[in-house]
Predict the 3D structure of the following.
Amino acid sequence: MATLRLGDDAPDFTAETTEGTVNFHEWKGDSWAVLFSHPKDFTPVCTTELGRVAALKDEWDKRNVKVIGISVDTSESHEGWAQDIKDVTGATLNFPLISDSEKKVADLYDMIQPNASDTTTVRSVFVIGPDNKLKLSLTYPASTGRNFDEILRVIDSLQLTANYKVATPVDWKDGEDVIIVPAVSDEEAKEKFPKGWDAKKPYLRVTPQPNK
């Protein structure tokens, strides 16, 4: 299986989850989606992560994002783990967890790390747009918990830059100034960005976020 690249179609699949059988593209619909894998149930770092993702439900909903998790364990195992997640984090699991015991989804998304284990899914995150294209992929080592504030920040950038001819600078957060892409001429920029801009360099024009 070739590695998925940004802009590729996100593979469709049908899988058993804690919320029944899910056909990924159908379940996702025209929403954004975050698909994230964890090595196994009842692992310490992932217990904290799943609680955090559940606690962020309002943030996902605000951005029209559906989240779905995956590991190679069974749905029965997932359900047992859900109680631990609630005990530790106070959050109730509110998104489906895929049971991928045959590694079909893990193989589709190239989640198996051969030099670590032939069964353990690496801790990957995939952000998929309404067009079912892959917009972002991140892979973390088992020892490092993921930063879901960063995932939300990237989704804010992806959603903004999909609608406006801008890019977001380093450490940007929603509401901060953005950069007019070089392909937009100054003449076109006058129409598109009526608030004006500050030209730090001819190729670096900073303007207030256009949808604020």
In short: The mean pLDDT is 90. Residues 18 and 96 are 5 Å apart (CA to CA). The domain at 14-146 is CATH 3.40.30.10 (Glutaredoxin).
